[in-house]
Write a structure and sequence with these properties.
CATH architecture: Up-down Bundle
Number of helices: 5
CATH topology: Four Helix Bundle (Hemerythrin (Met), subunit A)
CATH class: Mainly Alpha
Strand order of the largest sheet: 1-2
Number of domains: 1
Strand content: under 5%
Distance between the termini: 21 Å
Radius of gyration: 15 Å
């Protein structure tokens, strides 16, 4: 595989790379069409930097979400969901951005996410990072 600006030229394309990583290309983890558009517009170098920034900051956001959930602080929980959603949208992580959107909406209406929702969000972040690794944007979680 050849490297181009941090993103591998993927045999079998994006769908093939996801499948090799055990991620169904149609399971919603990655919005493939949006990813292709973003990649074409901004290039692999910028996407790699955004992915690295997301990886570096996601743990702190998830920890802050856990703290907000424990304190039943819907405003703080919503802020963390909004932060994660922004990065997820930029990286075309469809399922993650959708989950964040739902939890942020609930928080906006005063309903603080519970521990199960926070755990689901954490698992989805990990799944999204795995997709970014499969695409060559990251080398590890």
């Amino acid at each position: 595989m050849r490297m181009t600006g941090g993103v591998r030229m993927l045999p079998g394309g994006i769908a093939g790379a996801l499948q090799r990583a055990g991620i169904g290309p149609d399971d919603g983890t990655l919005d493939v069409m949006a990813f292709e558009t973003i990649l074409a517009e901004f290039g692999p170098d910028l996407l790699s930097r955004v992915a690295a920034s997301f990886r570096a900051e996601a743990q702190g956001a998830l920890d802050a979400l856990d703290t907000a959930v424990a304190a039943r602080d819907a405003v703080a929980a919503g802020q963390q969901c909004h932060f994660i959603k922004g990065s997820a949208l930029y990286l075309a992580l469809g399922r993650l951005s959708g989950l964040c959107e739902r939890l942020e909406g609930e928080a906006r209406s005063g309903e603080c996410p519970g521990p199960d929702a926070a755990a689901s969000l954490r698992a989805e972040v990990i799944h999204g990072l795995d997709a970014l690794i499969a695409l060559g944007l990251l080398t590890d979680r």
